[in-house]
Amino acid sequence: MVPQRKRRTPWKSWLLFLAFAGPNVALLIIFTYKPLIQSLQYSLLQWNIGSATARFIGLDNYTNWFSDPATANVVRVTVIFTVFTVGGGMVLGLSLALLLNRKLRGTGLARTVVVAPYVLSGVAVGLLWLFVFDPNFGILGAVLKAVGLSSPDWYNDPQWALPMLIVVYLWKNVGYVALIYLAALQAVPRDLIEAATLDGAGAWACFRNVVLPLLGPTTFFLSVTTLLSSLQSFDIIQAMTQGGPLEGTTTMMYQIYQEGFATGRAGYSSAIATVLFVVLLIITAVQMLVVQKKVHY
Amino acid sequence: MNASPFANLNRRQLLQLAALVGGSAALAACGGPAVGEAGGAATDKATDWTTVTPAKEITWWSNHPGTSKDLETELIKRFTAETGIKVNLVTAGANYDEVAQKFQASTGSSNVPDLVIASDVWWFRYMINGQILPLEALAAHLEMDTADFNTTLYNDYEFGDSHWAVPYARSTPLFYYNKSVWKKAGLPDRAPKTWAEFDEWAPKIAATSITPLGLGKGTSWSAWWFCNMLWGAGGAYSKDWTLTLDTPEALEAAKYLQKIVYEDKSAAVTAKDQVADFGAGLTGCTIASTGSLTGLLDAAKFDVGTGFLPEGAKGVACPTGGTGLAIPASKSPEQQLAAGMFLKFLTNAENTAYFSSNTGYMPVRTSAVEGEAMKAVYAEKPQFRTAVDQLATTRVQDWGRVFVPNGDKDLTTAIEKIMLQQADPTEAFATAAASITKSYEENVLPYL
Amino acid sequence: MSADVKDKHAVTGAVKRSVTGNVPATPSKIGWVSRGRLSGYLLLAVAVAAMILPLVWMMLASFKKRDEIYTVPIQWLPASFELSNYFAALEAVPFGNFFINSLITTVVGATLKIALGLTTAYAVVFLDFPFKKYVFALVVFALLIPQQIVIIPNYTLISDLGWINTYQGLIVPGLASAFGTFLFRQHFLTLPISVLEAAALDGASHWRRLWTFVVPISAPTIAAVALVSIVSEWNEYLWPLLVVDRAEMMTLPVGLTLLQNNDGVTNWGVLMAGTVLITVPVLIVFFLLQRRIVTGLTSGAVTG
């Protein structure tokens, strides 16, 4: 009876497929796709989240968001935060990986230490850094004072609050980027890397033309995953600045939360979420195109 | 692993899958709001309270203001002993905003509590969303002595001839000063009576090489204490629903704030927590909530003095804050009646004194202010007396700040632009006014 | 540091040397290398210090009394290492419950998530279904949908089901596996088809083929997905914040924020003690298992 199994009637094998993939797909439909569509519907409503009723207002939420003077600032903050956490994170992560890949004593321990913050809770990380940055009572201010500098006003000055968040985000996540790059580097012949990192002349060219392309797939993988997590980061902002001061750290994701739950404008919040979703789709599509062009050589 | 049980599992899983998908479609239909005309506030006309028997068990959502969980538990124990009604105390968040977020999100679900924390900037939104009950009829039925509530504190919850909550953990800002600094500067042992007097004193305080006044920041805070300067100068955030931020008085108050921060350098905005800065001796005086009194007396290594907020050119002006308690509209009359009974119990003279003396919040009843419990507190912490006395000078909040979604946030942004970035007050206020007016038109007007 | 990792380095080093090592190094190159080494060590030290110092500062603060924290200039070491802040934190909020809740949601959530990812990937790779490409696309596309977009409708659904303050409410909405499915599929495509054909000839059902043949040879990938799932479940914040309002049902990150005060002075000592309580156990586990974790993380990503 046994070897016959392969020759099932099609519907039987379909049932088998559904049994294997069905639960996961069902969960995705119930908790991701259906709410996504509901959210699109909400974005056309004037709806206060506590209210049982809502008014249909067409695209007003969208036009309001695009015409709101605060929007330019939110977009600026989001772009800066994303560029520095994703781009900065990859540059820093790759540098760290190159360092950890060298034949030095203690790299194993250093690698562990560098990755450690990645497993910590964002809320805890935010709180502990809040106490590091405190201009009066924190360790950073004391260190700066010791070398004759005064602590920037991290909590009051939007120009400094955003860099503070970026530093904390990188501290938590850069180890992961470094680790992935490190694994990829171990597949690259060591001589190539040494040539690229140690020799003066031609090192950059060697690195750019030989090593970096070899890391291409890894770079793509990281650019997609870190972009997604950066755009969705919430816990560090909530623990440290709650979007302030002067909305200097309000990213689109934080604005979605704030409008939806703090202000309670659920329709407006859904509209911003939709805009963000579309932007994410476009960026990912561009990433895919770039990869398809570059991957074959 | 035999083939046949797997085949069975297969079919069963399929059925479950079908049920799940079908179920989700049904649920999609019932989730979310009903689209149509805007709703509006609830009414209590339908209920004849004399025919209702109270429920045996109710749920209360609190954030335990001022770390008061033990006190609340104790009050519940006493209430249950008296009436036999069980009260489930739920920690619905760490602060007013979190409780409010959960309460708003719970609408239409089975998870609505019977009694809920309703802070000054939130109750109005509960009201226009139709989430809470007007309390007049219930209070009359229960013979709750509402006339004995402190008038300002009770009328903070008044709109459209009804009261929608009753005061519970209520506070005011208070002027705190460092007595040893005052002594060093050769000042009399009291708070400055007016802002003009503060300006005279400030150079003497600065001469002891510390910042004279530390100012707090952040939402629910900047725009709260600024009421003092604004109202003192004769201005207001709004008159009813009309924003009045472009009046000369409002601009004058903003310019005064800029003057003490940038010209006189007699005030500085704290990095994080003005109470902590003051407690560490970094500033000579500060404005903070009465709720911080107990913590400050514990933390400070010097003698802490308290006084009324300084007066402006147009006299005294002090806002109130903190939270009240409201009864959700969607529960059954039985639940609401039981919640009303508990509300009455929580805010009676004896219990408000008990709560107040252990936290630092105001005794919300006039009859409690001079009761034995409070007298004992004044004897132990004379600073507390000042806070209670100041209640007489308080005034109801401007609607533009507390009733409009984002009102407090927009005003905070404007005030922080003014004091942190020396922005032009006219411009900063105009931006806030435009935004608040728009929010009013979209989020409040359709529901009134 | 484990001997294993050093061994591995030694081995790879030896291999490299045997391949390329016969070229005698010029003196100038040696100079470069040693100078490079020095700067390398310096950089390593800086990186390690930047990672460790904030954690040390947190530990120290957790022992300080309020007046030791609020002093200028700052006081580096606490007057004594007594545990009063820890007792205060444990007394203020039920940390034991938080811990158990975090453990349950993480273990159950991550296990089910991996199982779902494995079965889905298996179906997509090894089973016949005319539209399986689209099914896979549907699963992977979900990666692009930010969690916050779906949170309001999901909250409504969970509360309609009466799942507020329950483990299923915490776990089920985040259960679907998109990332895991993606990684498992990539990995399954690289598996030698002969193994499975042999299993099929033995008469093993698909169910059995998955669990007794495919799963064992996929251990590194599974470990990688498990790790990512565990870390994200353990640290999840926004969803548990919304669906739980009883302290007894809260997870660690949500419970921690209960220590922040409303109207009083922020009590950094107690807050940092709470932060230590939630970070240090994770760090200890991480350092104990670091070799596995590191290989797990990387093998997953490299497969992807």
Sum up the structure in keywords:
heterotrimer; A: 297 residues; mainly alpha; 13 helices; C: 304 residues; MetI-like fold; 16 helices; globular; disordered N terminus
Short recap of the structure:
Chain A has 297 residues and is mostly helical. Chain A contains 13 helices and 2 strands.
Task: Please describe the topology of this protein.
The complex is a heterotrimer of chains A (297), B (448) and C (304).
Chain A: H1 10-42, E1 45-46, E2 53-56, H2 60-67, H3 69-100, H4 107-115, H5 122-133, H6 139-146, H7 158-185, H8 190-198, H9 203-214, H10 216-231, H11 235-240, H12 252-263, H13 266-294
Antiparallel strand pairs in A: 1-2
Helix pairs in contact in A: 1-13, 3-7, 3-10, 4-7, 7-10, 8-9, 10-13, 12-13
Chain B: H1 3-30, E1 34-35, E2 57-62, H2 69-83, E3 86-91, H3 96-105, E4 115-119, H4 123-128, H5 136-142, H6 151-155, E5 158-159, E6 162-163, E7 166-171, E8 173-178, H7 179-184, H8 195-206, E9 211-215, H9 222-232, E10 238-239, E11 242-243, H10 248-263, E12 267-269, H11 274-279, E13 283-289, H12 293-299, E14 304-307, E15 321-326, H13 333-346, H14 349-359, H15 366-369, H16 372-380, H17 382-390, H18 399-402, H19 407-421, H20 425-443
Parallel strand pairs in B: 2-3, 2-4, 9-12, 9-13
Antiparallel strand pairs in B: 4-15, 5-6, 7-15, 8-13, 8-14, 10-11
Chain C: H1 3-20, H2 27-61, H3 66-69, H4 84-92, H5 95-126, H6 132-141, H7 151-160, H8 167-171, H9 179-189, H10 193-201, H11 206-217, H12 219-235, H13 238-243, H14 252-257, H15 268-288, H16 290-303
